[in-house]
Amino acid sequence: MDNKTGTNIKLAILGAGESGVGAAYLALQQGYDVFVSDFGPVADHYKQQLQDWNVKFEENGHTEAEILKAAEVVKSPGIPDKAPIVKKLVENNIPVISEIEFAGRYTNAKMICITGSNGKTTTASLTYHILKNGGLNVGLAGNIGKSFAYQVATEKFEYYVLEISSFMLDSMYRFKADIAVLLNITPDHLDRYEYKLENYAASKFRITQNQTGQDHFIYCADDAETKKVMEGKLISAKQLPFSIEKKIETGAYLDSDNLIINVHQQHFQMSINELALQGKHNIYNSMASGIVAKVLELRNEAMRESMGNFRNIEHRLESVGKISGISFINDSKATNVNSTWYALESMTSDVVLILGGVDKGNDYSMLKQLVKQKVKAIVCLGKDNKRIHDAFEDDVEVIVNTSSAAEAAQVAYHLATKGDTVLLSPACASFDLFKNYEDRGRQFKDAVKEL
Prior knowledge:
This protein is an alpha/beta fold. It folds into three domains: 85 residues, Rossmann fold, CATH 3.40.50; 208 residues, Mur-like, catalytic domain (UDP-N-acetylmuramoyl-L-alanine:D-glutamate ligase); 133 residues, Protein-Tyrosine Phosphatase, Chain A. 34% of the residues lie in helices and 22% in strands. The chain is built from 17 helices and 20 strands. Strands 7-8-6-9-10-11 form a six-stranded parallel beta sheet, covered by helices on one side.
């Protein structure tokens, strides 16, 4: 269905969080007959918005008969394809799409789409920061901030930087990225992909679908899984790889301590010591953002300034302060093992590591080497910490269980000595003890202030 206006067409929206409520507002504006349905309770502020807009909605269950009347359904990314209601819709040949796909129909803005297992939020935030400071009329949406649909309905941006997860990509069909960025592919969320890495990788590569020779695809030439998929795939877009291991003619690479970007005739150079984001993984993130800026022909001075003064997002290697010479870092956004690996990799002192939560079938073996080198004690923060004990009992002297952010901060503080770093980088989801990773991070920060 390609009609641009939804005159009285029935549209059902599954999930009444940020993306669902934003989609409802845009759909209303476009004349659709909107019905929002959430399997769980709807948060008060979203409920208030839906009521203010006179949108029909339900919570704590789906009325199947009502949803099956829809001509099309917009699904929130958190709802898996194997949910009974989604299966039912598919059986009835009712198209199920993502909020990004839906909202993309109603804007002619240029789309800069960033995906990957790790570094998406940082790279999207940095790219937005560079483009905005470079004078572009740009919005930031997707997995981050105000929903894309709501911004399409209320703003007039000429560019969007979108942080896109594999779950969103799975329900995107006609949407096209003008500039697509794929940072890396590492095992995450495999429970949604039949525990097959190739299924998850194929999902990530949907970021390139519908691209033409006029578009750009930016990717990491050092990432094994990305390279594996690219061998058997025809990519129509102009390819701009980045690497810290080898020289790249068109793209980005490292020349001793200098980050070099060559795009067409445009050349950019900056010392990695001047980058706001430090650590090997952040060189990759800065390269990806820098290539986007050069494709859009931003000035080198403006780029240098933005890449040097960027402040990282909350809960991602966020410095919480120092107490008695001990640094505290909140990396609550590290909900998988890879993110924690990156965090440990960027540490330059001895670490007391706070780990744990809801384990998505984690393989902790990739952390063993770094834990041996850098971690003097592990503080577990979760309901069931057995797998952490099993994984690291031979590598660290002390592993302690705690059951609240306050207790974890206190125990870690007592285990650390002057010059050490207490790092909250849990490698797990937070739902056993907290509402979400933000709640976990904030409780940790509050606890540190109380020490």
